[in-house]
Design a protein that fits this description.
Layout: H1 2-7, H2 14-23, E1 26-30, E2 33-36, H3 41-50, E3 58-60, H4 61-71
Antiparallel strand pairs: 1-2, 2-3
């Protein structure tokens, strides 16, 4: 968590980062598609720090699994 805070140039408190990460969630829509309905400046900067594109509103399960596998490397 402190590393993410550092990667975002200490612009956000740890509480703000945790709240933003908790707000990122995908809702199952239909046929393997998920809709992500929360996006703000904090999430945008978290995405830049982690190289994850949170601006995509719809993703397939395969895309989500690919992101998870790349973060584990």
């Amino acid at each position: 968590l402190r590393l993410l805070q550092r990667e975002t140039d200490n612009r956000y408190s740890t509480k703000t980062l945790v709240n933003a990460m908790n707000s990122i969630s995908g809702t199952y829509v239909d046929k393997n598609y998920y809709m992500f309905d929360y996006y703000d400046e904090v999430v945008e900067n978290l995405g830049k720090a982690t190289n994850i594109d949170f601006s995509k509103r719809f993703m397939t399960l395969g895309e989500i699994k690919n992101i998870i596998s790349q973060t584990k490397k």
